[in-house]
Every structure is written in structure tokens, then in C-alpha cells.
Design goal:
mainly alpha
């Protein structure tokens, strides 16, 4: 999958149009509308609709978060393998010290700058955002969900 514009720190956030611009707004509006309706016309049916629409909204979030968690686990596995190939000892033996979010952020670093960045991350306990800002030669991730 190729992108028309190369990915950078400023444009790497990805929106899923179906989820972010249709499903989420529709379910949110339905849940809010059902709550307003239940307040104005209190009854068993109104409360049942509130429960139903809130459950649907939670289902939408849970399914999205499950997909993101699986994606994070795959990225973590890929990057551990990549780091094992790129790093030399003693840095290679320190891979388990990296947190999940650090590993996910390091994936944007090119192969050439990755060893120095990992050393910097371990020395300074850098956050996800700091790691992404430190990347000079951005390696795009165009396969994210």
C-alpha cells in the first residue's frame, strides 16, 4: 500500500472514516438522544433504549480497541525481531527493558538511526511522543488499522 504523501510526525495519525466520521457520531447521537428522551418521557421503554444505545456505543469502542490492541501486539513482535537484527550486544540484551509504547514509537526510525535512538531511549526513559520527535529519518507505517 503506497501513500501519495510520505508519512511524517505531523501526518502519521490515521483516521478510519467509517468509524470516526460515521459509526461513532451516529451511535453517540443515538445514545444522547435516548438519554434526553428518557428524561423527558420516563418509562421502561425509554430506559431500555438508553441501555441499548449505550451498549451499542460501548460495543463500537470495544471492537475498535480490540483491533488496536492486536495491532500493537503485532507491531511489538515485528519490532522486537527488527531490533534483534539491528542491534549489537550489549544493546540487544536490553530490548526487554523497552516498554510497549517505546517499541511502538521506535518503529518509525530508519534502520540506520535505530541503534542510536534505542540507546538514547533506554538512557533517558523517553516517552512515545519524545521518541517520535527524535526520529530524523521517518520510516512510515502505512499498514495501520
Amino acid at each position: 500500500m503506497s501513500a501519495a504523501v510520505p508519512q511524517t510526525l505531523k501526518n502519521h495519525v490515521r483516521y478510519d472514516p467509517a468509524f470516526h466520521f460515521f459509526i461513532l457520531p451516529v451511535f453517540s447521537i443515538a445514545a444522547i438522544w435516548s438519554i434526553v428522551h428518557a428524561v423527558r418521557h420516563f418509562g421502561y421503554h425509554s430506559v431500555a433504549f438508553v441501555i441499548f444505545f449505550v451498549a451499542i456505543l460501548l460495543l463500537a469502542f470495544k471492537t475498535r480497541f480490540y483491533a488496536l490492541k492486536v495491532q500493537t501486539r503485532v507491531i511489538r513482535l515485528e519490532e522486537r525481531l527488527r531490533l534483534h537484527e539491528l542491534l549489537t550486544e550489549p544493546l540487544r540484551s536490553r530490548i526487554p527493558e523497552l516498554t510497549e509504547s517505546q517499541i511502538v514509537a521506535v518503529r518509525f526510525a530508519s534502520d540506520a538511526e535505530c541503534p542510536a535512538l534505542v540507546e538514547q531511549v533506554l538512557a533517558n526513559k523517553m516517552t512515545n511522543a519524545d521518541i517520535k520527535k527524535a526520529v530524523r529519518n521517518w520510516r512510515g507505517d502505512y499498514w495501520r488499522v
